[in-house]
Amino acid sequence: MKAIKLFSMAVAALMMAACSNEDNDVQQPAQQVRMIPFEATIGPAGASTRTTITEGTGTDAGKLMVAWKGGEKIALVHNGKKDEVEVTTVNLDGSAVITGSIDATGTDGEAVVLVYPADAVKSVTSGTTYVPNTDDAFLAIGLQQDGTLEYIGNNLDAREGSETLKISSGTATLNDNVTMESKIAVWKLTLTTDGTTPLAANQVTLSIGTNPIAATAVNATGKSEWTLCVVPATLALYSGNFTVTAKVGSDTYTYTKAGGVSLTKNTYYQSTVTLSKPAPALIVNPAVGQVIGADGKNYADVAAATAAETTAVAMIAYVGSGSDCEHGLAIQLNSSPVQKDRSEAGTYAEGLTAVPGGTWRLPSKADWQNMFLGCAKSGDASSASDNMNPISGFKEKIAATGITWKSDKYWSSQDYSTYATDVEVVLYGSTAYAAFAWDPKSNSHYVLGCLAF
Q1: Residues 283-311: tens digit of each pLDDT
Q2: DSSP line for 111-179
């Protein structure tokens, strides 16, 4: 019995200790956030009001009209907190009523910042200082809204306004109506080919110098209307020359404006842009040894050009301007080149019959070196030796055209004072070489034009 009594006392002691510990672990109830009703008016209608953008009618035809849309969320930033309210009523004058519940732990007269869309506010640090949402969905503050624009695609806009809270009889409002100013400029581009015929593009980019800015399609079907949403950080870029580039399938259309355009935040613009398609390249996949016809196209050989009812006027001797090897130089095909002094040589070469897509000139020293070397994607031959022996493949390719070259001296465009550079070209037997030297400009040498394409 005594043992049992002692055991019972021990159990009782343990239970009391446990109760004592439980009492120590009890937390005080957290202070409850007091939410109170909120209602205020924002507006009025006009360029400073958002969010649905439609095309005006009647006296407003051709203008972008803006209005609030029911259900859109707005953040109230105050006293280090973020509350969300929404547009519940859009009035006839374009103003809107916003309602909801807000944290009323602040005081009457407290500063508040209104931000649209609400998701543009990522967090609040203190007072009305907030951290913009910089997630992928927000390229800048509020570039994507949580409402829906009926006219401009991708829901682009961002607005901000400030006022003070007025708290009375358990409800909150603003001390005065507030206008929320857009932080961006919205620019609508209507694409055409002649001012009236729509151009349906699959991609549109506006570039100012090296700064490309992508546009957003307004409509999902025709895609002839596009918009640019311009944030403050890039507004200044629009003061310079710019180019609008539109992709239509694999084709590219362009429009370039000198002098640029000045855009201002909280403003909506629209323009009809007439774009043109550059002329297609006539020379496709050029190769050394091919010939260029008077029509500007390249052919495998003289026979192919003749079959196409054109005259072969030059042989492609160098391909390699840039990494794509789509541009280069061709030497004039002339079995009876003329002799001129240096002062007449340039005029003769530049005056040859025009070829579409190409420009005739008197070959420079580097031109000659490049043509003797052939294709050189990695760069030009300006540092090549003044004595080039042999001239790789040049003799055979010239011979294949049926032209008999004269082994003699030919002018280049490089000159100094009363002297100019000539190149002595020797093509006979198994020997082929070229040697550059200075000669008086008054000497007569042969002239062949160089066609740059």
Answers
A1: 888 888 999 999 999 999 999 999 999 99
A2: EEEEEESGGGEEEEEETTEEEEP-STT-SSTTSS-SS--SSSTT----EEEEEEEEEETTEEEESS-BP
